[in-house]
Amino acid sequence: MLEKLKEEVYKANMDLPKYGLVTFTWGNVSGIDRESGLFVIKPSGVDYDLLTPDDMVVVDLNGNKVEGKYNPSSDTATHVELYKAFPNIGGVVHTHSSWATSWAQAGRAIPCYGTTHADYIYGEVPCARCLEGKEFEEYEKNTGLLIVDLFKDKDYEAVPAVLCKNHGPFAWGKDAHEAVHNAVVLEEVAKMASRCELINPQVKPAPQDLQDKHYFRKHGANAYYGQGNNK
C-alpha cells in the first residue's frame, strides 16, 4: 500500500539526521496521498539507523493505523489536524532542532531580519501558545488545533512553519521533501536571528519593501528567480 509514498517519506525522514535536525529519534516526517485520504509517517521511537521504507506506517485522517508493523509517531494526531485544515500541503515535519526549539522555548516568534528569511517565509515565524489544563488530555490533537487556529488569518503556504511554545517547530510543504527543506530553512533562520540579536540587541526587522522584493521574486505569478521560465 502506497509503496512509492513510503519510499519518499522514508527518504525525507532520513534527511532529518543528514541535515542535523534531529538527535536520537526526536523528529518525524509524514506525506499524504490526497486521493486516498491516507498518509505515511515514521514509526514512533524507532532509531533512524534501523528504519527501512517498509517500516513506514500508513494512517487515515481519523488517526487510525491502516497498515504497518509499528505504531505511528506519537505526533500523528498533530499531522492529522494539519492535513485536514491545510488542503494544499502534502508533507509535514516535526523536529526538536536546537535553534528553532530555543525560540519556541522562549515563546517568541522569529522576526524577519534579512533576505534569507524573506526568500522562503513571508514575515515572522509565529509562535503558538502553550496548551493549558484539559487541553493536555488530547495533547497531540490539540497541538494541531492550536496551530490551525493560529493560522486562521495567516497564509499557511507563505508561512510554511510554526513554533509551539515550550515544545518545538513544525513545518510543511507540497510534499515530504519540501517540508524537510522548509524545516532546514527554519533552523538556519532561527540560528541567524539568534546571532543577529546577540550582535545588535536593538535590531529591527528588515524593511517591508525588502521583504516583499525577496519573497515575491521567488513566489507567486510574477516570480523570476531560478530557471522556471527558461525555455
Walk me through the structure.
The protein is α+β, with helices and mostly antiparallel strands. It is built from seven helices and eight strands, in the order αββββαβααβαββαα. It has helices spanning 3-18, 76-85, 98-106, 115-120, 139-150, 176-199, 208-216; strands at residues 27-33, 38-41, 57-60, 65-67, 91-95, 127-128, 161-164, 168-173. The protein has an eight-stranded mixed β-sheet, with helices on both faces. β1 and β2 (38-41) form a beta hairpin. The mean pLDDT is 96.
Can you summarize this structure?
The protein is of the alpha+beta class. Helix content is 37%, strand content 15%.
Keywords:
15% strand, single chain, 8 strands, 231 residues, alpha+beta
> Could you give a short account of the major beta sheet?
8 strands, mixed
The count of strands amounts to 8
What average pLDDT do the residues reach? 96
How much of the sequence lies in strands comes to 15-25%
Protein structure class? alpha+beta
Number of DSSP helical runs: 7
Basic shape = globular
Distance between the termini: 38 Å
Give the SSE layout.
Layout lengths: L2 H16 L8 E7 L4 E4 L15 E4 L4 E3 L8 H10 L5 E5 L2 H9 L8 H6 L6 E2 L10 H12 L10 E4 L3 E6 L2 H24 L8 H9 L15
Parallel strand pairs: 6-7
Antiparallel strand pairs: 1-2, 1-5, 2-3, 3-4, 5-8, 7-8
Helix pairs in contact: 2-5, 3-6
